[in-house]
Structure formats: structure tokens, C-alpha cells
């Protein structure tokens, strides 16, 4: 019986980085996806790997039972509007599962599989990415300074030259200008609205606008927050504001199908790479009451240079897959979001080989 880690979309934007990291850790891998030639090409560069042609819409349960991997890592987004077919296939095959989902409903409701997963004796984890994987790790780190947390403001802004995947682009465009479900402190939010500026170390000022992520539901409940705000941003101001203008047209009721335009919009974006940088980052600012009873505010930043930003969202899947494969402690059977599962120290340790720096104030 093989005990490889199977990566669905293993040659994609995030999948290949996860594969490279797990290969460095000496773990056996199956690089799986619909394009066998791309899988083979990556396997030629990584030891202890093998390719597999696999379509998640095909006979997945039968394939998983035949291959018998220890863990499946699902990177084939977008997850907005997706079902739990892959996770259920892993339950049926008795295999642990991790995904990089950032779909708000997908991750929030993932625990509906908990009973099935427990009965099968497998661990299923959704949202093993920057949000809520890193965001919750940072909150766990910062909350030690507080007697009570109240508000959270955080955001992510990649460098213009960072590799951008079509699936991620399409996922964001599904809710640009659309009315979002309310979240703490925001009764009537809209996608890519509430545009505001944030100043980062090294990077300077970037614009951010509202994105629909699982943290908007998960973090207020887990940390008893009264208000939460999350924004994503494009480095080049005119591009960010251009998308903001499109969001206004969608909000006004114009019949624009932005997800259908994902490919040409991404191609247009790539034209302006020369005007941007390879520097991106994330900020987390929390406010509340200190242990002395006085108001307190703390901020944490992570800044990635040298196009190393896409490494950051890959870390939770890397760490969790390694733990599950090696039958490490702390992960029980069931289905749950990637919330509070990783220590910030371990997260940053995995990133130490890259041009990435953190700041705290």
C-alpha cells in the first residue's frame, strides 16, 4: 500500500509550491491533475514524486481507493459555489483531506461533514490557507496582550508581479459589486467596495476593498469580536480603482458577467507588470481592552519580496499534511475549518528560506 500525499492540481500556482515544500521535507508525493504532461514535467524536477492523470469530476472514489494516499490536498479552485464531492470521496476512501478553499460559505459550512468524517475515522480540514489559517494564528499570537478583543481590521495585497492564477481571479470576480451576507459591524456590505488605504512597512500605501472570505463568519464567533473588516488590494492604484468602478456598475444593476471576463481581465492586468513590484503583504490590526483595563491596539505585518508572496498561503496545507502523513499529535477525526490549528512560530519557521519579513507594533 502506498502512503503518498496526493496533491490535486499539484502543478498549479499553489499546488507546485506545496509539492516543492513537501518534497524538501522528504515526503512521497503524487502530482495529480487533468494535464498529465504538466504533472510529469513537475515530477522531473522533484524527487520521490510520480504523476497521475486525475479529474475530480471523474471516478474519484475508485481512483483514491486504488492509489491509497495518506492525505489528499485539494487546490483546484475556485471553491465559491463548489460542493463537497472531493471531501466526500475522501471519506468514502478513508483518506485524510485538506483544501485551500477561501469560499466563505464553503469553509463556514464545512463542519456539516463532521459526523461522516468521524464515523470514517478521517480528518478533513478546509481553508488551509492565509485565511483563516494565518489570520487565526496571528490572532492567537496577539490576543495574549489583551483582556478582551473587540475589533479586527486586516487585509492582503500582493505585488503586481506576483503570479496570479485564473481560478483565484475568477473567484474574486464572482462577488465584485454583489451584495454580501452581513458580518460583524457591517450590515450591508458589497464586494470590492468600502475602499480604503492602508500603509505597510516597506510597501508603502495600498488600497484595499471588501472581499468575501470565511473569516468574516468564523473569527467574530471564535474570538468574540464586535466588528471585523477584511480587504484585498491590487498594488497599482489605477487598477484597483478600475475594479472598484466595475463593482459600482454591478452594484447599480448593470448585467455584467465579470467571472466570464476573468481571462481577458487577467491578461490586461499582466500587461502592467512592469509598472509594479514583486513585493506584497498582509496586515492584521486588533483593538480591544488591555490587561490594565485601558484601550489597546496592536498591529502585525508580513511583507514578502522577490515574488515570494504566493508561498504564504501554502504553509497551512504543508504543515497539516506533514502532521497527518506522519500521524502527528493534535489532529482528531472530524471535519472543521483551519482555525487555530497552527502556531505562528511554526508558520514563520516554514517560510524562513524565503525573502519574507514580519513587523509588529
From TrEMBL:
Regions annotated as coiled coil: none
Domain of life: Bacteria
Annotated ranges, domain Saccharopine dehydrogenase NADP binding: 5-102
Pfam family, one: Sacchrp_dh_NADP
PANTHER family reported for this sequence: CARBOXYNORSPERMIDINE SYNTHASE
Name of the protein this chain belongs to: Saccharopine dehydrogenase NADP binding domain-containing protein
Source organism of this protein record: Asticcacaulis benevestitus DSM 16100 = ATCC BAA-896
Record lineage: Bacteria, Pseudomonadati, Pseudomonadota, Alphaproteobacteria, Caulobacterales
Amino acid at each position: 500500500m502506498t502512503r503518498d500525499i496526493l496533491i490535486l492540481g499539484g502543478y498549479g500556482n499553489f499546488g507546485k509550491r506545496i509539492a516543492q515544500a513537501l518534497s524538501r521535507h522528504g515526503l512521497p508525493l503524487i502530482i495529480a491533475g487533468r494535464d498529465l504532461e504538466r504533472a510529469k514535467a513537475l515530477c522531473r524536477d522533484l524527487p520521490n514524486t510520480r504523476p497521475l492523470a486525475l479529474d475530480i469530476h471523474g471516478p474519484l472514489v475508485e481512483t483514491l481507493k486504488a492509489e491509497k494516499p495518506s492525505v489528499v490536498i485539494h487546490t483546484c479552485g475556485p471553491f465559491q459555489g463548489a460542493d463537497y464531492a472531493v471531501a466526500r470521496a475522501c471519506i468514502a476512501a478513508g483518506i485524510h483531506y485538506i483544501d485551500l478553499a477561501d469560499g466563505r460559505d464553503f469553509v463556514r459550512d464545512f463542519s456539516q461533514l463532521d459526523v461522516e468524517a468521524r464515523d470514517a475515522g478521517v480528518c478533513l480540514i478546509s481553508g488551509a490557507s492565509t485565511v483563516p489559517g494565518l489570520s487565526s494564528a496571528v490572532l492567537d499570537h496577539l490576543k495574549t496582550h489583551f483582556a478582551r478583543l473587540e475589533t479586527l481590521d486586516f487585509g492582503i495585497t500582493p505585488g503586481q508581479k506576483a503570479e496570479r492564477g485564473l481560478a483565484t481571479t475568477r473567484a474574486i470576480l464572482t462577488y465584485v459589486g454583489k451584495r454580501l451576507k452581513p458580518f460583524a459591524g457591517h450590515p450591508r456590505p458589497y464586494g470590492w467596495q468600502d475602499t480604503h488605504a492602508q500603509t505597510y512597512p516597506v510597501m508603502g500605501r495600498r488600497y484595499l476593498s471588501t472581499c468575501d472570505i470565511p473569516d468574516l463568519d468564523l473569527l467574530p464567533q471564535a474570538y468574540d469580536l464586535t466588528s471585523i473588516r477584511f480587504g484585498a488590494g491590487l498594488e497599482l492604484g489605477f487598477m484597483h480603482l478600475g475594479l472598484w468602478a466595475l463593482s459600482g456598475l454591478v452594484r447599480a444593476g448593470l448585467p455584467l458577467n465579470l467571472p466570464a471576463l476573468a481571462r481577458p481581465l487577467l491578461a490586461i492586468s499582466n500587461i502592467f507588470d512592469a509598472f509594479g513590484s514583486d513585493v506584497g503583504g498582509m496586515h492584521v490590526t486588533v483593538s480591544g481592552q488591555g490587561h490594565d483595563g485601558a484601550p489597546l491596539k496592536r498591529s502585525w505585518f508580513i511583507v514578502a519580496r522577490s515574488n515570494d508572496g504566493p508561498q504564504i498561503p501554502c504553509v497551512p496545507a504543508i504543515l497539516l499534511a506533514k502532521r497527518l502523513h506522519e500521524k502527528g499529535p493534535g489532529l482528531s477525526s472530524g471535519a472543521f475549518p483551519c482555525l487555530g490549528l497552527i502556531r505562528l512560530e511554526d508558520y514563520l519557521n516554514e517560510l524562513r528560506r524565503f525573502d519574507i519579513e514580519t513587523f509588529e507594533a
